[in-house]
Amino acid sequence: MTRDELRKTKRLILALDFGGTKLAAALAMPGERVFLAKAASPSPPKKSAEADRDIILKLAARVLAGRRPAAVGASFGGPVQVEEGRVVLSHHVPGWEGFPLKEWLEERFGAPAVVENDANSGALGEWKRGTGQGTNSFFYVTVSTGIGGGWILGGEPYRGADGLAGEIGHLTVDPEGPVCTCGRRGCLEAIASGPAIARRARELLATGESSVLRGLSELTAREVAQAAADGDPVAEKALRGAAQALGRALAQAITLMNPERIAIGGGVARSGERFFTWIREAARRYVSPHARVDIVPAQLLDDAPLWGAVALAERLFKGAQ
Hints:
Nucleotidyltransferase, domain 5; alpha/beta; globular; 5-stranded mixed sheet; single chain; 321 residues
């Protein structure tokens, strides 16, 4: 190994993303804007925390290729006690309750680790390398299997008194709406997440409405968005309803915090420009005419939590100086 290669090895950052439907690992150098390597895998059909950990170790080994990280940053799809590096729970994968993820990572990789909620990690990544650059007050919302949100205020994640700031997915938008994974009724996540969009499309199909979606063996938000783009009335109704609910929820965030910009990431953010038009129209309807409604697609999409994990790990180097 050359001296330059040895120097780089001492600065390698391993970034990990424990998502609800996908797991990913990437390798990066501090300050760089391109991953040295990246690997991803869908969650297994039978989800469990143990299966997630086994998969993430295999992905990490693939990107490390025999190298050893100097620091590890992890984004987790659920609430996290950041100081302790302990998972509170996952709404989508059983078995994570109270798991000491930071300690586990440090034991496995022999390097200091930091763990953050995926929405906060995504917010930090998007603020540092995406659409949030140059803002002082930035709100990032990820819409995928679930819906999460993360605030960046003055360059720092704002977590709130209990680490739950930004949890817009569990804002009640319809008290009589469907039951959410958290157990309450009418949360935004139960109405506008990917699974909720697919469920709403199936409900509309059950009424007998004509649609190209009828007969599909597997119906997801991706198929709904594609059909909506092609003008299918059932798909358009399902997607528009989700967008309007999201816009109403964002209007409350805008009224409360008045962010400079809001970026929407996650898989559902790929639903096209009309999806964002519906969101902006709904948000404007419920905010002061003097408040800015700057709602844009996130640039980094699936990579936002990984880049946020890199940014968090970079701070471990600074703390050691």
